[in-house]
Structures are given as structure tokens and as C-alpha cells.
Amino acid sequence: MKNNLSLTWDLETIFEGGSESSELKQYIQAAQDWIETFKQQVTPFAEKPELDQLIELTETIRQVSMHNGEIGAFVSCLTAQDVNDKYARRLVGIRNELNAATQKLITKFSFALSRVDDQEWQSWLEDQQLIEIRFVLSELRDEAKDKLPEDQEQLITDLEIDGYHAWGEMYDTIVGSMTVAWENEQLSIGQLENKLNHANREVRELAFQKLEQAWLDKADLFTETLNHLAGFRLQTYAHRKWDDVLKEPLNYNRMTNKTLSTMWETIVKNKQAFYEYLNRKAEKFGLDQLAWYDLEAPISQDVKEINYQEAADIIIKQFGQYSERMAEYATLAFEESWIEAEDRPGKRPGGFCTSFPESKQSRIFMTYSNTASNMATLAHELGHGYHQYVMDEIDLLNQNYAMNVAETASTLAEMIVADAMVEEATTKEERLVLIEDKIQRSVAFFMNIHARFLFETRFYQARKEGVVSTEQLNELMEQAQREAYGDQLSTYHPIFWASKLHFHITDVPFYNFPYTFGYLFSLGIYAYAKSDKKNFANFYDALLKDTGRMTVEELAKKHLNVDLEQPEFWQRAIDLCIEDVKQFIELTN
């Protein structure tokens, strides 16, 4: 691989000219034309559905999805790389209008499908041009049967633009404007968050205090955004007569409530081992208990820095141990400048991977500051990119995979790199640092994510009774953290609900448990990889290709021959994490 990799991404190969691109304007017009074609075709289909019309419509929907996806990904990149780009903010509105117009037509389409007689429907699905997409078409048909009458669902879609999605955008706008004074400069929230894993405890504590105050200063605004988001959802659910707030996220993630509850129950039964880890880490720091800002702290003051070039070389090498194709994809992403990693002000916090369905490229966003944790994030996002890289080979309509299986691919990529680093460690100290980095991720998925899940569940229950105040939100958050961490910490982070973007995302609620699912499901896949490296690449690609066309229970049964509604699979996965804790305890004796 070439040296002197760029730390900034190249968006010009998608649309030249950034947020004022003339190419983008033309492409937006093409998207609008396809949406108009969709409208003209779906109207007669809704009146009297015919098989030949359905086949024609599926091709139009592919075109609409491709155009919307290309525009949406580009706009996401623009708003992330520069939160002050006023032209990009305007494009957000255009993107939302395209998505809303499309969603209205998809709603009309799905209701038309629901009116087709069951017997006739089954015969249609045997048609050669539809058989490959039968799962997603049936899913759309079933969803329509579970909603309000069509005209009311269309009204909800119209109202979402300014009565729902706008609150999520308001959150993004507020966060994007936030900066915090640090020494002689103003840092973005993302830059300051990177200091929470600093080796010096005084630096971590000061960074945490400054972040806490920054979020508290805006807390009343975030209370507004969160309450209005939840209120809109709950009103929609009430009209649909959906009693369970988990119905939407479970349907979106194509998983059963039993699978979810079995996963959490198994985790809770195994938390004691992780309490022992937290206590041992506190002991190593000379503390009675860790504070919240100690959770990501390195166990050793002698922390090895890993620059971007080194991280790229390590990731490509370790991906290649399991799949040459994964290594080829990562090399492509690095060499073609698909990654925005520069540490600079003006970027939004966090990291993501987005894909361009027509260009068949991906873009990765993060802030890289030469830590092992940053390298793990980089591997994680490349895992997302590889997932889409494989999916690009199948029908576009089968590429709509849910978040829980998306997190499986990313977490597996992260795990491959983390494990390799542990195995290649040359000293006891280095091995200890790397094992502890792995355990930090287990704690995040089993405790931090669990706290988010508990908070969101209880918040929605409270929101049914009326607006939830800032003070109540803080109380709910701290209670959830104390329960999830087994009261093992000396301080908590009650304003976390404001600082975490995932609570304010409008795509789907409960943007939390899919991470833990993906982590544990990837452990099952990783166990297969380690037992049969020779056949892993083909097995893995086949599994990824099925992620958009079956439920997770079906996926697990087909490829791993396991039942996700039973605790055995989850216990085996958690046991692998407990082994890391045992090694940590031994190394710190």
C-alpha cells in the first residue's frame, strides 16, 4: 500500500463542487424525475394491482432508492465535515423532502400490495423477476396491514418533516455550534471527547467537567428536542394501537422480543466478572472505585501511539488473515481517500460509514488522534464499508439490512484487529494494555448500552404521562447507569442523554440494543472464523448477502445453526469475553 495517506476524504469523485455542486443539482433533478415516474406508475397500480405493473414498479423503486441514497450519503458527508457549511444545511432540507415524497409513494405501494388476495400474491412471488426480492416485498405488504388507513399514514409522513425530523435536525444544529475552551483554543465536542482516554487522570477529569458543563448549558434545549421526538412517536403509536414502544425497533431490526430479552437476561447473569474487572482497574489506579471518566482510561501510563499510516498497515494485514477480499476493500478505501480522519475543529463528533449505491463507493468519517481506540474505530467503520461492498453484488432491494446485523460486520472487523494486536504483543505490559482495550468494549456493550436501553425504555414510559423535565431525565439516566454498572462507579454521567446523538436520531428509536446484538453475534461468527480460516471468507460473504432478506433468527439458524431465542448462543459468546477478564486479572496479579 502507498505511503503518505491522506487524512481527508475525496468527495469530488462523487459530485464536484461540494455543497454548491452543479452536478449534484442535476442529480437531484434526476431523482425528482424518478419520483414523479414512481407516482405515475403507482397510481393505477393502487387502483387495480397487476403483476406486470408490479415488475415495472420494482425497477422504478430501485432507481428512486439509488438516487436518494447517493444524495443522502453525500449530504451526510458535507454536514459532518463542516458543521458551518450553510449550503449543506439547505441540502438537508432537500434530502428530507425527497425521502418524504418517496416514503409517501412507498406507503401507497405497500397498501396496494396488502390488497392483493393471498393466493394470488403467492403466485406472483413465484415469478422469476420477483422471486429474489420476495422477502422485502412481503415485508412491505405485512407492514401495511399493521398500520392506520392509507390516507392517515400519508398525513403522518407529511407531518414528520417539520413535526418530527426537524427536532432531530435541531439537535444536530445545536451540537454543531458547540465549542469548548481548552488551554488556548476552542475545541469541538468530538475533539474534547477524545481526551477522555488520556493517560493523565487530571486531564480526563477536567475534560469530563468541561463536557458536562457544556451539555448542562444546553440541557433545556435538548429536553425540548427529546420530548418532542418521543411525543411524536408515542402519538403515532397510539393511533396505530401499538402498545409496545419496542414494536418499531424490533420490526426494523427483524428480530423477536424473545431474542432481545434472552440476550439481556444472559448478559445480566454474567456481569459479576466485569465488576471484578472494574474493581481491579480501580485498584491499579489507587482508587476505591472508578469514576465515569476513568472507564476508557488506559491501564498503563506508557501508551503506545499508533499513527494513521501504521493503523492502515495493521488493519489491512489482519483483515487479510481472514479474507483477502476484506484486505482489498480496506486498501481501496485508504488509497482512494474514502476516509475523513483529520483531527480539526468544525467537524461533528462521532464516527460513521455511509455508502453511495450508484458510485458503489463508501465514505468513512471519524477523528483520528493516534490511539489504539481510534484504530479500533477505524477498523469498525471499515467493517461497515466491507458489508456494503459485498452487498453491492446483489439486488439493490435486498441491500436494506438493519442496524443490528450492520453492527455485526463492523464489530467483527474491530475484533479481528484487536485480537491480532494481543497475540502479537511482545511484552506483558503491551499485552495487558491491549486486552484491557478489548474488555473496555465488552463493558461498553454490556453496561453502557444496557444503561441506554434501560433509560430509553423508562423515559418512554414516563413520556406517556407528559413532558419529562431536565431534572427527571438526569435522574432516569443516573438510575439506569447505576443499575447497568451494578453501582460499581464513584461518579456517573446524568447528562449523558443529552450528549448521545443516538437518543435524538429520527430514523428509528432505541438506537442502542442493536450494538450489543451485533457485538455478541459477531463473536459467534468470529469463533467460526478461528476454527476454519480457509473457508471463512466465502462463508462470511454468503452470510452478509443474506442480512437484508431474512430475519436475524433465520440468518443465525441458516449460517450458524443456532437458536437466538435460547440462552446457549449468548452464553458461549459472553464466555469469550469473560476469558479476556480472566487474563486481565492474571496479568495484574
Query: So what's the oligomer here?
Result: single chain
Quote the distance from N terminus to C terminus. Answer: 41 Å
Strand content: under 5%
Total DSSP helices: 23
Give the helix/strand class: mainly alpha
Uncertain stretches of 5 or more adjacent residues: none
Radius of gyration: 24 Å
Number of strand segments: 5
Based on Cα principal axes, name the global outline: globular
Order of helices and strands: HHHHHHEEHHHHHHHHEEEHHHHHHHHH
- The overall pLDDT average reads 94
Helix content: 55-70%
Q: Tell me about the largest β-sheet.
A: 3 strands, mixed
Spatial order of strands in the largest sheet: 3-5-4
Structure explained in plain terms:
This protein is mainly alpha-helical. The protein has a domain at 158-272 and 288-298 and 443-512. It has helices at residues 22-47, 51-81, 86-114, 118-124, 134-145, 150-177, 189-193, 201-217, 219-240, 247-252, 257-269, 272-284, 308-322, 324-335, 372-391, 403-423, 428-463, 470-484, 496-499, 513-531, 533-545, 552-560, 567-587; strands spanning 179-182, 185-188, 339-340, 352-356, 361-365. It has a three-stranded mixed beta sheet with strand order 3-5-4, sandwiched between helices. A two-stranded antiparallel ribbon has the order 1-2. Strand 4 (352-356) and strand 5 form a beta hairpin. Helix 2 runs antiparallel to helix 3 and helix 13 packs across helix 15 (372-391). The longest helix has 36 residues, at 428-463. It is globular. Keywords: Hydrolase, Metal-binding, Metalloprotease, Protease, Zinc. It comes from Amphibacillus xylanus (strain ATCC 51415 / DSM 6626 / JCM 7361 / LMG 17667 / NBRC 15112 / Ep01). Its cofactor is Zn(2+). This is Peptidase M3 family protein.
